[in-house]
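May I ask for whichever protein you like with its backbone structure tokens?
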Amino acid sequence: MTDSGHSAAVGRFLTLGDVAEVLSISAAEALDLVRSNELPAIRIGTAGAWRVERIVLESYIEAKYEEARRMALWQQSDFSDIVELSGGRILRPDKNSSPGDD
């Protein structure tokens, strides 16, 4: 089955149980992610059951990979020479200025 075929079979929305299974965590931990707004979800139906859109979960996972990658770079660096983590600029003290000269 292709990815698009599998996606159609799974459906657009996942239950918290589905989310927990994908992330290999407990259903309570999945609920905590939703309640803390770390993982966006919506309530569906009269019972108000939580549902997470499949694409939102995929984006969440990708963001966690990026967060882990950046953390690894940060931990391997001397904290000031990574252009990517300093917003694209390397800050060097100006030899002609003294602290407080802003």
